[in-house]
Amino acid sequence: MYYFYNMQDFVNNLPKLAKDKHNENKKFFAKLKKKPPKDLDYVMMDLNEKEFDRTDCLQCANCCKTTGPLFTDKDVERIAKHFKMKTQQFIEQYLRIDEDNDYVLQAVPCSFLGADNYCSIYEVRPKACREFPHTDRKKFQQISNLTLKNVAICPAAFNIVEAMKFRLQNYKPT
Ligand code: SF4
Ligand code: SF4
To answer: What tens digit of pLDDT does each residue of 147-169 get?
Structure first.
């Protein structure tokens, strides 16, 4: 596992670290998908909890700075209401439609991210922000392509995948 004294050093090194691990991770997830261990949901919950006990997202905010979430219709309604704006007005001011026809931010870093890395709409933030990096998701093996990308953005996801490989190293799909 990789520990950097400084979170920003870790974030800066992450694209290279993720690239170096890419083939290994790809093989690991391909095996996992074939026949996931029965207790995978439990393992992921446990690894996720342990990682986020020691990771301070306020020292990082790399997800908010570099990618940003998808906004569901419910997210748009809730956040527009929070700003006492009409839905359409909120969309025009902050969002665009991407190539998959989803609402995404017009620009990153996210407009709602403060200089102190706090989210100014934390209580009403999009569902995708609440769930990122999705490492406690049930049937985690089903989002391996997304996870392969997220390990290059999120230090916690990177560590969780490393811990996952270590924990499941004796696991062999049949
Ligand atoms: S979820 Fe990951 S990328 Fe986002 S702030 Fe936390 S550690 Fe950083
Ligand atoms: S809405 Fe908040 S949590 Fe989501 S990307 Fe923006 S600043 Fe980050």
So the answer is: 999 999 999 999 999 999 999 87
Which of 68, 60, 169 is CA-nearest to residue 117?
Answer: 60
Ligand 1 pocket: which of 154, 160, 161, 162 to mutate (most atoms within 8 A of CB)? 154
Distance CA 155, CA 15 (A): 10
Confidence grade of residue 77 (pLDDT, cut at 50, 70, 90): very high
Domain map of the chain by residue range?
Answer: 8-52+133-167, 70-127
Q: Is residue 74 classed as helix, strand or coil in its secondary structure?
A: helix
Q: Residue 82: how many CA atoms within 13 Å on its side-chain side?
A: 14
Ligand (nearest to CA of 51): 1
Q: Which residues of 114-133 are buried (b: 16+ CB within 10 A; e: fewer)?
A: eeebebebeeebbebbeebb
Residue appearing with tokens 């569901």: 72
Please provide residue 97's backbone torsions phi and psi, each rounded to the nearest 5 degrees: -100, 130
